[in-house]
Amino acid sequence: MKKILPVLLATACAVSAQAKIVTQVVEYKQGDTTLEGFLAYEDAVAGKRPGVLIVHQWLGLTDYEKQRAEQIAALGYVAFCADIYGKGVRPKDTTAAGVEATKYKSNRALLRLRVNAGLDELKRNKLVDAGRVAAIGYCFGGTTVLELARSGAAVNGVVSFHGGLDSPAPADGKNIKCKVLVCHGADDPFEKASDLAAFEDEMRQANVDWVLIKYGGAVHSFTQPMAGNDNSKGAAYNERADRRSWTAMKLFFTGIFN
Amino acid sequence: MKKILPVLLATACAVSAQAKIVTQVVEYKQGDTTLEGFLAYEDAVAGKRPGVLIVHQWLGLTDYEKQRAEQIAALGYVAFCADIYGKGVRPKDTTAAGVEATKYKSNRALLRLRVNAGLDELKRNKLVDAGRVAAIGYCFGGTTVLELARSGAAVNGVVSFHGGLDSPAPADGKNIKCKVLVCHGADDPFEKASDLAAFEDEMRQANVDWVLIKYGGAVHSFTQPMAGNDNSKGAAYNERADRRSWTAMKLFFTGIFN
After folding, report:
1. For position B18, what pLDDT does the model report?
2. Do A214 and B217 touch (CB under 8 A)?
3. Shortest CB distance from B211 goes to which of A1, A8, A215?
4. Is B211's CB within 8 Å of A209's CB?
5. pLDDT tens-digit profile of A76-116?
6. In whole angstroms, what is the distance from residue B78 CA to residue A184 CA?
């Protein structure tokens, strides 16, 4: 038996080493607008598996989301980064990003169309079990996945990482069919206490299955290394909150996909 | 190999089946007061291991905490239920419980002495690695483990389940040396928004490593089946929040003990 066990372990390691993440840029449409998303999956996984939609922060679809897609693919899911802004629309700085994000935050109907187009694209993928899908989003993307839920989309769960929680139509909470997880920086200066309270009320009134986690010492953008590490700017990376929220997301997935 | 694997599995199962939880009523003292706690550990675990102090709700040390102690022992830790009220002081109803709890909530110095006596008793146990200890508490016990932290006790972490978060001396937050996890029912009517805000501010000012989780649809006592299931009473069991908060606690332990 002593000789056999190492062989078993070596075999397991060999399988793991062979697994690789396949990525692909994917063009798709919402109405007449061409969008350019990004797909990632592990080729060693056989058959259909849950799908996870990833929605970008205000700078649009960047390498950051693509890296998250690869991390999620490594968990055994099909990951698809949605493009809300449109092919080639990638703001060069935060001023331009603010303009672009505002277009959608002030037109929630359009935002819902765009994110649902991404969800539909994910569900069409032949590797995806369309009955087991989730959506996650960062900052602007957090707001967006909440809008996806509020649109009544058939999705098992959504996770917002430091997303804006405000809604111009709180009554739409009643459309939510999925579980909701909100990962929030307790020191996020961009989210007013009144917005948090309104969000909780929206979930409460609509009897949603929701959890909100507040991470002490974390400000806006706590999952994003490119935000730097100066909390006084209101947006900064926080390794501890990043790690904990990622773990919370994985547990959430286990709960909704099993 | 096909024949050997089942043997390995059977062996593993046999070990697991042999493991049993040892329990013991333990008398100890705080000053001249005799206290009666409850110890639980798994006898199959070898050597020193982390210890977890469990602090009871307002009815005093009941079978509920003893059951939690056995669950925690099954995780491989030494569990010890503190007795805050004193040997034989076990309120018979909620009126008596309110009177007893108030004695300590209005005398935080005494509360700290009592809970620290429990912690010391746990650390003295020869099976406990005294450098790896945590404290958890329910309702009144949640308040109590936060007071333990505020006393500056050498503990790696505390977890409050639907505990009162208010403090008559918020500046004592600066004494906190451990990580703090608060599991809170989002619909708990006994915890005012102002108490929550004050707690967050206390943690913030003292630069504590803290996380607060709000469970949607959960009121006070959400981990306690004996609370019934009528949310309109303000205290009720919530299986979902119970399960999720238990998982959060286990992850928290993994983080502080490893």
Report:
1. 57
2. no
3. A215
4. no
5. 999 999 999 999 999 999 999 999 999 999 999 999 999 99
6. 33
